[in-house]
Amino acid sequence: MNDISSISNTLLSAMNIQDMRVKVASTNIASFNLVDKKGINFDYKRLLKDISTHNLDYNKVDIERYKSNIPKSLIKLDEQTFEAVSASGRYQGIAEMLNRNYGLMQLVIQGKEV
What we know:
Helices cover about 65% and strands about 5% of the residues. By secondary structure, the chain is mainly alpha-helical.
């Protein structure tokens, strides 16, 4: 049972990270033309490394440590749009894996053959 919980937690953490990537990119796009707003950088690679290296729970991690302000001049709308779309696609893919995982567990619980 611990393996199932570990897999589910890993997939949920991955979904949360992809969700944060979408939110950051969307915020950068929405605030691009606003005066006195800075861009946001989200170092999701460092977050992934920290979670896997230290076996951290995503919900207990201070996400703000992985965000930083960047000058607007470093924001490129096409890159932010690509970031939002690709992270959204990854989120959907991970959600499908999680659904299949739960579907297989349900079959096992009901005693049906896979």
